Amino acid sequence: QVQLVESGGGLVQAGGSLRLSCAASGRAFSTYTMSWFRQAPGKEREFVASINWSRGTTYYADSVKGRFTISRDNASGTVRLQMDSLKFEDTAVYYCAALLRATPATITRPHQYDYWGQGTQVTVSS
Questions:
Q1: Contact yes or no for 79/72 (Cβ under 8 A)
Q2: Which residues make Cβ contacts (< 8 Å) with residue 64, sequence separation at least 6?
Q3: What is the DSSP letter of 86?
Q4: How far apart are CA 55 and CA 12, in angstroms?
């Protein structure tokens, strides 16, 4: 069992930055691929970024590549998402998620994930 709690959301002007954190607890956290998803009102949940447990390999959605950075600290059980150059269209609820058996085909699919946090709201004003 893995418990995930997000924090760090808020209101920011376009062009600004925010850093989201996900505190993970439970056994074997370090063996999970950790990802961030987001969901805007009326839209499906979409993949944002992921980081694997062993080499720290990262993968980003095209819409955030070059602006967002995902990182993890297995010792403290923390995953972070640094979001820079924020745009109005980044407004959404952001979710942290954990996936035990990750493959390139599964990391972008929300229904494949084993555990989810409760989400944190990010609002970017134009």
A1: yes
A2: 48, 49, 83, 90
A3: -
A4: 32
The rounded distance, in Å, linking the Cα atoms of 116 and 110 is 10
CB of 45 closer than 8 Å to CB of 117: no
Q: How far is C-alpha 23 from the chain's CA centre?
A: 12
Q: Tokens at residue 46, please?
A: 């979409």
Cα separation of 118 and 87, whole Å?
23
Contacts of 98 (CB under 8 A, 6+ apart): 2, 4, 24, 29, 32, 33, 34, 35, 113, 114, 115, 116
Q: Closest Cα partner for 7 from 80, 70, 61, 89?
A: 80
Tokens standing for 79?
């995953």
Q: Taking all residues of the chain, what is their mean pLDDT, rounded to a whole number?
A: 93
Q: What percent of the chain has pLDDT over 70?
A: 100
Closest listed residue to residue 40, CA positions, set 110, 77, 86, 95: 95
Please, which residues bridge with residue 80 across strands? 21, 71
